[in-house]
Amino acid sequence: MSVTTTVSQPAPSAPGSGATVLNRMIVRPEIGAALGALAVFLFFSIITDKFLSPLGVATWLDDASTLGIMAVAVAMLMIGGEFDLSAGVMTASTALVTAMLAVHAGWNVWLALLASLIFALAVGALNGWIVMRTGLPSFIVTLGTFLALQGLNLGVTRLVTGTVQVSGIRSASGYSSAGWVFAATTNIGDARIQASVLWWIVLTAVAALVLVRTRFGNWIFAVGGSLVSARAVGVPAMRTKILLFMTTAFAGWVVGSCNILRFASVQANQGVGLEFQYIIAAVVGGCLLTGGFGSVIGAAIGALIFGMARQGIVFARWDSDWFMLFLGVLLLSAVLVNNAFSKRAERVRR
Prior knowledge:
- A two-stranded antiparallel sheet has the order 1-4. A two-stranded antiparallel ribbon has the order 2-3.
- The chain is globular, with a radius of gyration of 21 Å.
- It is mainly α.
- Helices cover 71% and strands 4% of the residues.
């Protein structure tokens, strides 16, 4: 049985109801992120000439892309009422599995990629199953997964290679075709657009369609809004949340694959700490920490803000330490704005 929800879409207004354009915009979770992205874009466009150059645009899109891929998946999970603190380290784990199998075991790169995908989905499914069967907060469960994966990454990599790095995948069979899928560049004028940017756009579009146009999207909003109520009306809560955790793991695999095939090496501690940036991007994009409200489009825009700000600071020749101040202010502002917009949206719907 499906549950119809209008959390992420404005309710239709009857003719003559007096609904304004402003009210219809307010119920969009991503409106705050869109305004923030416009402000960041205009600011750095004015203070530095490099920001709008073909190289500049390609650079901040590249910076935002891998963050955006993960932020979109994390946003769906947060809308479903859960968190995944293992998302960052998963990008390194999948890249390490691919590299070790291709370089040290002699596997074809495509087979190594398939094995790392199965590994990622299994970890994601395990996270979701433990959360749902035990009732433990996903924060605690995935923190344990984060620590376990980090230990495995360091321990196994050092055991196999004697170092904390795996490299040499370019010499493996299948690298050429796999590299074309995950690490190719597309020339648009003078700009060289990375494959990760295309993955980001495609996955954001797919996630947006799933969230607002499918029964599964309704289930996500339902379990995030009220798990008890969702179960009472027949929503398969366990299946929904397990699939959401598997989605974040899949996104980690995509990012890990893009990284290992582009840079041809991976560090065992890569990705550690990025999970908080994924959550911040989702919050900036309109996701509430309490679940049941948010937008994957907004999360993608949140990642774009990160990319523009991080590279804009570099182009402006400021100290990069200022970026952490920017993150702190951005997070606090986003939480305040999101709370205000969600309360106003509830009033508008009534």
